[in-house]
Amino acid sequence: MRGNPHITDLIVAPKPRGVARLREDLMLARRLRRERFDIAIDLHGGPRSAWLTWGSGAPRRIGYAIKGRSWMYTDVVPRAADLAPRHSVVNQWDLVRPLGIGECDPERDAVEMAADPAAAARVSDRLRAAGIAEEAPVIVVHVSAGNPFRRWPEEAFCEVLVRLAEADPRRRILLTAGPSDSAAAQRVVAAARGRLRTPESVPVIGDWDLSELRALIARAAVYIGGDSGPVHVAATTATPIVELLGPTLAERSRPWRSPHLRAEIVDAGSLPCRPCDQRRCAPGDFRCLRSIAPERVIDAAERMLKEV
Q1: Which domains are present in the chain?
Q2: How confident is the model at residue 149 (pLDDT cuts 50, 70, 90)?
Q3: Global pTM exceeds 0.90
Q4: Exposed site from 132, 180, 249, 252, fewest CB < 10 Å?
């Protein structure tokens, strides 16, 4: 949200526990009410966001039809089933339809994240300090995912790193990860560097903040990653994307941007348990991800790199 030119004011809601949280929510609701907003749209649909939407006092309040909360809205919108083969952007776009806004189109209405020149400068400095030449093809591989249902095996990531590095010694492959998967990323890097004759192909640079991550991806020749937040950050750039999908469907989670920008989905195809609610793996072996061979990801990445 930070730096988005369409946003006039960004209010970050505090999230303390217990009685303190109730007090903070009451204070926030009073602040929202003082702003005298004309319209409030609840994009989340949870109990807290619904209550704050109602508490804003806006004469028009739009939200999903959810049992026990619909009364807080003046305009109630049907909510698509969680596993429906319908893109999540389109699901949220439903909430602006009561305002007379028409269909959502990825060419015209691509996801956005404002570029940060300062972050881009920091990324350039860090790449230069790591000995990565300006003309070097950079491949960003993100190993994190929100849960084990979206986490490709470490050995598969390692194979991709090694094969892509061996194919062209000019390439530099950078791993990124969220806090919960930083140890996994370190293991993948160590394993890949141990197999390579040119370990400098997989440099160790460290963590990136969100703005730096976007700048890094924008600099890259290709982005590779699963169905997690960073793939949608990548969608805000023109960088080619290889997205690995496990239990989720391409119809719901593909990059939402111009179809003229290159992106390729690699998934397990049709399975009787796919899509799933990601609560319990029915077969018990996470086959939707484990059945994706590294060769398929490598081939997809090479196709993208040939066009760079």
Answers
A1: 18-99 (3.40.50.2000), 117-306 (3.40.50.2000)
A2: confident
A3: yes
A4: 180
